[in-house]
Design brief:
The protein is mainly α. The protein has 3 helices and no strands.
Amino acid sequence: MLIALSFDELQALAETSLSLKSQIELDKLLMKNSENQLSNEESETLDKLLAQVDQLNILKTRARYTLNELPEKPNK
């Protein structure tokens, strides 16, 4: 569980995504990779972006889990 975060902070984290710039770059690199046209530098960048996506997904999952485990949800 993620502790010391407010309900609103957990909700924001659970809905977080890559920046538009990073998403566009990721899409471009994935397309080039599927065509076996990546340079070594592009391959490294793709690996870094994919690692960021993995870490972001872990954080989002932990935030959702924490939200589900909260004893009381605030009234909105």
